[in-house]
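Incident log, entry 3
Record: Diacylglycerol O-acyltransferase (448 residues)
Problem: checksum mismatch between cached and fresh output.
Input:
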Amino acid sequence: MNSELLAPLDLAFWHLESDGHPMHLGALAFFAPADRCRGGHHDDVLELLTTRTAAIRRLRMRVRDVLLPVGGAAWRADKEFDVRRHVHRLRLPGGDFAAEAAAVAGELMERPLPRGLPPWEMHLLTGRPGGEFAVLVKLHHALADGMRAVDIGAGVFDEIAAPRAARLRRTRTAPEGPGAPDPRRLIGFARDRIDDLGRAVGVGASIVRASRLDPRGLPALTAGPSGTRRLGTARLELEEVRRVRHLAGGTVNDVLLTVVAGALRRWAAERGEPLPAPGPRALVPVSRRRPGSPPGSANRLSAYLLELPVTEPDPRARLDAVRTAMDRNRAAGPLRGAGALAVLADQLPPLAHRFGAPLAGGAARLLFDVLVTSVPLPRSALSLGGCPLSAIYPMAPLARGQSLAVALTIYGRRVHVGLVADGKAVPDLDRLAQGLGDEVAELLRLTR
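Fresh output:
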């Protein structure tokens, strides 16, 4: 892959950052102490990270402007690629390692990625010699959506890196040359473009209808951006979440959305903030990847919009409200409604993204207040250099005008929650993180 045009949605994410607003996503992964693992030294882990990331072709690509199409850009191999510009080590004081790592991760997520280099970084965070360590993965959203970020990040784990390298050695063959054009494919292409145009008109109308001229929400979620970042973490017992789903109905995702709504309600009460009616609106991303599609392909996203029922005092009634709304979203599908803004982005020419993306990013506040996304992980146990992965917290980017983004992933027997917030607007992020666990306990008590 020497050159590849940015897909429309990737191009939109790239230009959203053109005015200095970070568009990073990533994860903070914690591992067992190195002295209990194969190598026994953090230097070995750093060398392993360097070697494995350098072998991932996608991470050697940078974005360059192109003459055609006008306003477009392309991924091109960085001829001067040096992995040492991207993989770094930071030694922490070593008191409360988990808290220190989360604080440093928030600060690192504030910093823009250099636009002249492949847009990613990895940071090895270490404490005492041979002790536990963490890896912060930081990727530009143009490089990866949630599923593609998982595929890229998973390339450093022992269970995936070695088999993948062996598979590549076995399957390397000469690329096939282009065949003669098939008239049936040309007809199908034209029909698809007509369908896309009709879909874009429908989505555009839905966006206009759903836009709020007076978007009132929780004051902390609507504060002006300060450019600072804070990371909060929480771990929920997966068995408890599943028990609530079994007793009360819905899906695991419905229960988790209800937990977020309940935690926001508790948090607002502690802060003495009035609860808005209707509640804050969540954007819930949905993957549009088809089964079997290659994970390295472009961003393929849509989203649902959900009013979080924070004014409802009964947790069971909150779950019923979330379940009903999400059932309605799922029945309509990810290609309809205002949440399918990314579908509309696919239909716009590159020049429109170059000039319109910053405007669209500023208008996100008219559509939603908080991002709540689920990130899938491999179900098998993972390790790095023989050190087992003990916890992993995904991090979603903050849209302009928002102060909080919530990302969840299931690993092992727990749901790991990463909360990314504007550091000035949400200085008490740890209280919101604690409210998530309290809400699961309350739901479990009431559904019994």
